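Entry type: protein chain
Record version: 2
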Amino acid sequence: MEQTTTWSKVDLYINGKLLADDPVLDAVLDANSGAGLPQIDVAPNQGKLIYLLAKMNGAANILEIGTLGGYSTIWLARALPETGKLVSLELEHDYAVVAEDNLRMAGLADKVVVLEGPALESLASLASQGREAFDFIFIDADKPNNPQYLEWALKLARPGTVIVADNVVRGGEVIEAGSQDARVQGIRQFMELLAAEPRIEATAIQTVGSKGYDGFMLGIVTA
């Protein structure tokens, strides 16, 4: 308990020094909590991280797999240039409604399209449209489907596209080959695909903080 308390205190310190007060994002978290959404949004400093990664990449066309209440969506949309667009995929209708309300509150509704329904179906639909490749793809949805999300992400990417996936360490359980947790096995299969896939260079980083012990994958599409 003492260690996790320290992690949270360090996050508060970092946020206090490097993140400006943000009433909009605070209101988004309040709205998500009030609507009964699970409190699994990225932490504020993690939101700033994906914002910076998208901005460094010059991303003008972003795909997010897993909207929840739109907290990470807003961070990513803020990284877009004036004419940039973001497509976010959400299975749950109630979550999508909350996210769209939050996006309007944040003044970003014109930059973001939230597609409701199973993400694998939405991804297939996006691919069939022959649309422009995405510059940045953030995967943060149901972990058992992560291998399929990676396969679709590669189809919807171009050389130079950055792909980030959250929650890939699972409190260290990712090393448990015999785990009965479908989320852990989904991440393990995801890692095996990354290891075997010649079209992407990737690494994974362990993280600690107010959200506990986890990690993220960061990769760049090369071909």
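Comment: The mean pLDDT is 97.
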